[in-house]
Amino acid sequence: QPFRAARKVDKGFDVLLTDLAAAQRLCPRLLEIIGMLEGRRITAVAAEPRRDARKLKSRTADHEMVDGMLCRQVAELGRAVPVLPEDVPYRGSQRLVDAPGAQTWKHFLLAAVHAGEAHQCAREMHAELRMLVAWSPAHALKRDCEAWVARCRVCRCALAVPAKHAATTRGVRAERPFV
After folding, report:
1. Residue 32 pLDDT exceeds 80
2. What is the tens place of the pLDDT at every residue in 131-152?
3. Which of 5, 45, 141, 160 has a CA-to-CA distance to 120 between 20 and 30 Å?
């Protein structure tokens, strides 16, 4: 798996994955899935076991635990990718000093992927993030990438069409000494 190979090469990526595994346990929805995969009883995991049992079992079907991190099997890739927690603030060690206080893991990855390769377009961001993480909800990844690019000040300035100003010219008369 690519993220396992990167762990051996890049120490910063290893720290990032450790932070991600800790953040997954802060997301209530992912914590239920992690509990089921770790073998806990449904009564210890779900708030209402009778009502939520079938839903929770179907959600855990394509997930697995890899090195203490929740991963989802992606059929198109043929491998498992780490699951991104929903609405969990990013408090990791690679957080920028000037980052907003409400920065989530989604914001962190969108910013890193977008600015990392000379301000990628939404299509390129979508393709790269699909290979790296399992977005939640999955159908929102493309929309989130498009919204991020639309909000990027650098991209807006680069793509802006300058307004055409009407030239204020006066006709030149053909008289002496110019004729």
Report:
1. yes
2. 888 988 888 999 999 998 888 8
3. 5
Give 18's Cβ-side CA count (13 Å radius): 10
Tokens of 30: 């992912």
Ramachandran angles phi, psi of 58, nearest 5°: -70, -35
State the Cα–Cα distance between residues 73 and 103, nearest whole angstrom: 27
Q: How far is CA 19 from CA 2, 93, 123, 140, in A?
A: 18, 8, 27, 23
| pLDDT averaged over every residue in the chain | 78
User: For the chain, how far is it from start to end, CA to CA, in angstroms?
Assistant: 78
> What residues does 161 pair with on adjacent strands?
none
Instruction: State pTM to two decimals.
Output: 0.71
